[in-house]
Specification:
Layout: H1 22-28, H2 31-39, H3 43-55, H4 61-76, H5 78-98, H6 107-135, H7 142-154, H8 157-172, E1 177-182, E2 188-194, H9 203-208, H10 224-278, E3 287-289, E4 296-301, H11 304-310, E5 317-320, E6 326-331, H12 337-352, E7 361-365, E8 370-374, H13 386-400, E9 406-410, H14 418-434, E10 438-442, H15 446-454, E11 460-467, E12 473-479, H16 488-496
Parallel strand pairs: 3-7, 6-10, 6-11, 8-9, 9-10
Antiparallel strand pairs: 1-2, 4-5, 4-7, 11-12
């Protein structure tokens, strides 16, 4: 049996290698806040959430829709999904506490340990079957429909009863019946474990029934060599059955482990949905478009991590930008530029792993990879200056970048003077556009932003953080020409209560 809740025809690989820029994505997009909300303190849920979100960039358009349908089922049937997950956890934890594994290499030892493991799982499988019987009609997605149908078909009452009978039979008999033949040189070959007689005959049958001629040999009590030889014969007879039971036990264990792993992603999504509902943060299922379509459209897009951090609904942004590949974002300090940038990156990641997004609506084309190039605070461990460090990180990104990717810049190349930083940024952006990379660039480099604005590129959209006449920030972004000021004086006045001194004034 296979769970196949994450992929239609493949297992979810928990140990699959993550993107090379994993650390930067986690740091710049504050992904640990997202994983923490999904896991609710559970380390295993945290691990699965991280793996699913960061590896989602490699998933196909069909896989995204497959998971979205399964997640909708989970949101409609939270209690049932949690029950199935708890049953899988119960099976694994029982195995870990009650079964130490197959340490013996002898067929007898393998048989004994396999019997113990199968005993543990028969009860769990029976409970899973009952859940499937009672609630299968409540699920509509392909993923859950196939899983529950498989549980009902392969774990029928007759099958579970026969498994219990066989386990009882193998466990209760101390003696075994093995047949063999004589081969070349009177070597004993073709050892076969035979099914024992159904029941012991009564005294009347033993006296009057016809007996098949047989020869019996009994070992002497102190015949150690004979005992070893007999034990070897016994193990040869048990070998095939022991291996078959061990494989069955491994198969069931792998199924329960994979069921728990794949359900963990959906349980994490349900946990996150519940957290967001408490703060009245809207969510939607994004519309994924084929790679290379240059689509981006959203209404009320929010930064999910900010919403989780402050625990309340936050300002959302609207955007209609189909056909655009360059987004230059300027405007007032603390006006919501970085929050918008992070919101775009998070929504893209959440869409591509099959999750919902924190927006009233969201649609975008699938990207091949996503990179961030954010400014870094001064680090005493740096062996060179901040600008050199920025260029080194940019070089690493270019080496790993592929067409149809997304790159998020946040105040990049501001560690040098305006002219040099603007020229470097301009050349990099043009090179990225030529290789079909979608670029979002938050910047205070006026020469860079205004220079691009004057080129009037059809593929570019210029957004500006709104500042009202009295200096208040609305945290809304609107299309607009870059301004030469970022209104830092507003912040100075808010913090220090007065206007900053002009240069030269003492």
């Amino acid at each position: 049996m296979k769970a196949h809740l994450m992929y239609r025809d493949a297992d979810f690989q928990l140990e699959r290698k993550l993107p090379s820029n994993e650390d930067s994505l986690v740091r710049d997009l504050e992904l640990n806040t997202l994983f923490g909300a999904m896991s609710c303190g559970d380390k295993f849920l945290f691990k699965v959430a991280k793996q699913a979100v960061l590896s989602g960039l490699e998933d196909s358009h069909e896989t995204i829709l497959y998971r979205q349908a399964a997640l909708k089922d989970c949101l409609r049937n939270e209690v049932i999904v949690k029950t199935i997950y708890d049953l899988a956890v119960e099976g694994i934890e029982t195995k870990q506490t009650s079964w130490l594994g197959v340490f013996s290499r002898s067929p007898g030892g393998i048989l004994y340990e396999a019997l113990k493991l199968l005993d543990l799982f028969v009860g769990v499988l029976g409970k899973l079957r009952r859940v499937a019987d009672e609630h299968a009609a409540q699920f509509k997605s392909e993923a859950f429909t196939v899983l529950l149908r498989t549980l009902k078909a392969e774990l029928s009452d007759d099958y579970l009863a026969s498994v219990k009978d066989y386990l009882k039979e193998l466990r209760s008999r101390e003696d075994i019946l093995v047949s063999a033949e004589l081969g070349t040189g009177n070597e004993i070959v073709k050892h076969i474990l035979r099914k024992p007689f159904c029941k012991e005959p009564g005294w009347f049958q033993r006296i009057f029934s016809r007996r098949t001629p047989a020869y019996t040999y009994r070992l002497a009590e102190r015949d150690e060599a004979g005992a070893r030889a007999l034990d070897e014969l016994r193990n040869r007879g048990l070998n095939l059955v022991a291996n078959a039971l061990a494989q069955s036990a491994d198969h069931l264990l792998n199924f329960v482990v994979m069921l728990r792993t794949e359900l963990a992603f959906y349980v994490g999504c349900v946990n996150l949905h519940r957290r967001l509902a408490h703060s009245a943060t809207p969510v939607c299922f994004p519309i994924p478009n084929p790679m290379g379509d240059s689509r981006l459209s959203c209404a009320g897009l929010r930064d999910v991590c900010l919403a989780l951090t402050i625990g309340q609904n936050i300002v959302g942004n609207d955007l209609r930008a189909d056909g655009k590949r360059l987004f230059i974002i300027t405007g007032a300090n603390q006006g919501g530029k970085s929050t918008f940038l992070r919101g775009v990156g998070l929504a893209q990641l959440m869409m591509q792993c099959g999750m919902f997004a924190t927006a009233e609506s969201f649609g975008a084309d699938i990207c091949r990879s996503l990179f961030t190039h954010y400014k870094r605070e001064e680090d005493v461990t740096m062996k060179s200056g901040k600008f050199d460090e920025e260029l080194a990180r940019m070089s690493d990104i270019v080496a790993a970048l592929k067409p149809d990717s997304i790159l998020l810049f946040n105040e990049s190349f501001a560690a040098t003077n305006e002219r040099e930083g603007s020229e470097i940024a301009r050349q990099i952006v043009h090179a990225l556009l030529e290789t079909r990379v979608k670029v979002f660039f938050v910047t205070h480099l006026y020469e860079f932003a205004h220079g691009l604005f004057e080129q009037k590129m059809d593929s570019a959209l210029f957004l500006r953080a709104e500042r009202q006449a009295d200096g208040r920030r609305t945290f809304k972004l609107f299309p607009g020409e870059p301004l030469q000021t970022s209104f830092g004086a507003d912040l100075y006045q808010e913090i220090f209560g007065g206007a900053p001194e002009k240069a030269g004034e003492g």
